[in-house]
Amino acid sequence: MKKCLILLLVITACQPADHNKHSFETLELFKMPKTELEFESVRFVPLSTGEDHMLGSQLLTKFYNGDIYLLDKDGQKNILRFDVSGDFLNHIGKEGRGAEEHMGALDFVEHGDTIFVLASYGEDSKIISYLRDGTFVKSFPIGLLGRSFERVSSGYIVNTGTSPMFSHRFYIIDHDGNILDSLLRNDTKWEFGLTVDNFAIHQSEVLIHEAFRRELYAYRSGVLEQTYYLDLGEHNIPEEFYSQSLMEGFPGLQMRGFGSIRNYFENARYSIFDLVLQKAGDDAKIFQFAYDKKRNELYEHSFIGNEESEELFKHLVGFTEDNELVYLLYPVEVIEEIETMKSYESGRESQLEGLTEMDNPIIAFCKLAR
Hints:
The chain has helices spanning 246-256, 331-334, 338-344, and strands at 4-5, 11-16, 23-28, 37-46, 59-64, 67-72, 79-82, 88-92, 105-111, 114-121, 124-131, 136-141, 148-152, 155-159, 168-173, 179-185, 199-202, 205-208, 215-220, 223-231, 258-266, 270-278, 285-292, 297-304, 315-319, 324-329, 362-368. By secondary structure, it is mainly β.
């Protein structure tokens, strides 16, 4: 199993963004020679397993105040909260049509002692709030068909994707669901039914990425600023793709191959880009880049993303201020590599003893050795 990862990169241009006075960096991710980086340390946190908190396979994972939260979209259909050691604490929310329940939960965020859930209801969405212990607080409609969202000082930023119902792809709404502002014009005439987690938080900034676009943004103090343009070379999606019909454009895109962005994280030292390259007839290839902003270097971890892949660190779900890449490991995928995983642990006592493929996932914190 590879224990290391990463690559040297160059800033090819610095261009002014057309929607603000700030500049952004253009990174040509596939043009420079690769450099691997070993992890300095790896620590595993197995999530406890029990009849009332068995997790499914479609999980949205977030970390707040030392606790681990997972929205289980195909199993429990609510949010499960675990502590820093992986012990189960409580459920948050419940699927249903009752006043205190939600249908089709898509995303969640935390603020203070409250968890806010974005859920879809036909052509509209609601935000339902609960205390951390699961106590219902309130719910309200937002007049948008949201796919993901995040908290901002004035309320929330909501992604509506490429729905032709909306003139823009992102909206700022207040705490009651009223629209305050619109961001990034929707220049696509069809809706690509893709729900992703578009947001991450770095200090007071909301980081924004979209799967099929190469521009990355940060929403800072009420202003949207572009941070990067990721040039994927031959894997770039051509602009004409967005002006074609979906039936006409997507088959051609699959045949030529394309790259999409799965995650974008930041801390004071690094920017993290999680990409997937797809082409009809080929297995997807995953690239996880760590760009060292201090040294102007890019490090890379890549692997083939199929079921037979022996790669341990597949599912990147976060990045910490301590320079730790955070992965979600499903025991069924790694059970045959337990002895290898144990060799990564820096503690004297392994956290992986007795693990079975029927257990809940493991959270792996992998510190970059730089």
